[in-house]
Amino acid sequence: MKKEDVKICIIRVGGTNCDRETKRSLEDLGVKAEVQHLNRLVRKGSLQEFDGLVIPGGFSFGDYVRAGAILAKSLTARLRGELKLFIDEGKPILGICNGFQVLVEAGLLPSFNGISDYPEAALATNIPIGYRCMWVYLRHENFGRCIFTRRIPQGNVLKIPVAHAEGRFIFPRGEANKLLERLLENDQLVFRYCLEDGSPAEGRFPENPNGSFYDIAGICDPSGTIFGLMPHPERAFYGWQLPDWTRMRRLPRFADGRIIFSSMIEYITRKF
Amino acid sequence: MRYIARVEVSLKPGHSDPEGETTKNSLAELNYPVRDVRVSKVYTILLEASSVRDAERMVEEMCRRLLANPVKDDYKIRIEAAE
Known about the structure:
heterodimer; A: alpha/beta; Rossmann fold; B: Mth169, Chain: A
């Protein structure tokens, strides 16, 4: 498939607020990106027209019940068959921030045994408590499973901002270590919060901004085509989005988040 | 028949409750001898069901499917006939 034929859907509902910058990021890479309201997608039955799906950041449905819970149930109840087909065809799904919360609540991540009817993990209230909007360092931990980070060498450190109040990744108590082992065995761990030099944050604030278990910032499903992360790659797409760009001698054209979108597109153009 | 279900969703014991902890600290600043605070969310649901048992079954399912995340939440259900 040619790059200019690639069409990505960015799903929107009430409370979504990062759809436009996500669209701009994708379009900057030369593909078509459409922001589609969930109602319209359901009414038209048009999900299959797209080659990839992004669930963007925001506060879908006001974060009522739990962050991401209502959109998760809406997606699985209203698009169930279509979504299953989309996933089975190997089309990529990216969940950013609230989108990651949606994928976890929908049972699409970590999805150890296929799509789960109930969440297998949770993105709980930050520790220390509070909405946190800040730049963090992420260490790329994946060995090639995740199609969204295939172009990033394992061990590389990326600088991308987070902006959330519920981002503390947890597994059920008592099973956390066993499930972490499974995550590692399946090569589903993608990003961990770290220090600037790549050494682990080990739960310490502010390097780990939310108290996430094992400093987990992003994971993928066993196939590597569904990926969720708390940080916002669309807010680290251009060099001028960097917090210290005015102090730089040479402004880089792009920032670290771009490679996630370009990897997604590269995967689509090669596979389809 | 109409029933009213009162569903209380709270964090499982042993799970950190940063909201409760913050509230506890604030109450302590007001000089109350508070040892612990846990925050719950309460849903009052008016629903149609053929019997109490049927209502219980439905509300139980609602909890598992939407109202609680089994990874971190517990829930308590109380059902009574609506007037």
